[in-house]
Amino acid sequence: MNPKRKKLSAVLATILISLALANFIKIHTKLQATLLGYEIGRLKHQEALYLKKRSLLTMELAKLTTKASLSELIRKP
C-alpha cells in the first residue's frame, strides 16, 4: 500500500470513528433526557398525591380544632 493510500485510510477511519462516537453521544443524550422526563413525571404524580394528602390532613385538623370539637373532648372523661 502506498503512503498516500495509507494516509487516506487513516483519515477515513478517523472520520468514521468520530461519526460513530458522535452518534453514540447523541443517542445516549436522548436516552438520558427521556429517562429524566419519566422521572419528572413520576415525581410530579407523587407531589400531587402529597398535596392531596396535605389538604385532607389540613381539613381534618381544622375539624378537630373547632370550638365544638375541643369542647366535646374536654367533656369526655
| Low-pLDDT segments | none
- Going by helix content, strand content and strand pairing, the class is mainly alpha
Which percent band covers the strand fraction? under 5%
Estimate percent helicity: over 70%
Main beta-sheet strand count, sense and barrel state? none
General shape: rod-shaped
Q: What's the rounded overall pLDDT mean? A: 92
Radius of gyration: 33 Å
Indicate the topology.
Elements: H1 3-64, H2 67-75
Structure notes:
With 77 residues, the chain is an all-alpha fold. Helices cover 92% and strands 0% of the residues. The longest helix has 62 residues. It is rod-shaped.
Features:
77 residues, rod-shaped, single chain, mainly alpha
Characterize this entry briefly.
By secondary structure, the protein is mostly helical.
